[in-house]
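Archive record:
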Amino acid sequence: MPDFQNRTDAGQKLAHKLIDYQKSNDTIVIGVVRGGLVVASEVANFLDLPLDFIVVRKIGCPNNRELGAGAITQMGEVVFKETVLTKQGLVAEDFKGIIEEELTELQRRKDKFREYQKEQTIKGKTVIVVDDGIAMGVTLKATIMSLQKAQPKKIILAVPISSLNGKEYLENDVDEIISFLPFQSFRDVEDFYGIFGDTTDEEVITILKNSRV
């Protein structure tokens, strides 16, 4: 039996681990679009906190696009996981076309979703970054790097499930990593969910329309 029925269920369970931040005046929840925003919206609703989003895109390997070798931020900055490049015998130049493709999709999402909610100021605030899980962690590495440039007071990374490797890869970049389930070794986040399909643009827009700002 899966640990979570779906992302909504995961967000509701995760929210209880963050009760200390309920109704905090200087805290904001940021969901990683698209799937992470579903989890984040449940956290924000339970804690009565404002919700925002961030768009980051995974950079898949040329021969296996599901295998994340890096990620690209909203500012167009690229982060690679060197262990993956080494293991796959690849260098950064091998990803030029993929990066251009992902940057185009990133900008499309950002422009579309910002029509429904303007970007909120996070300087000097505690930011709770929420995603649906951490496997390798490279997408969240890029997410955190992007948010750090906005000078938040503190960054808390909150996820329903995180691998041990993912935790170790990210723990020096944030103030705290909070997970509903114990940190453990696994390959795919979706194995912990009953339903783990793609989140649509329409679902994201609905969440943003109903979110507290």
Residues 96-114 form the longest helix (19 residues).
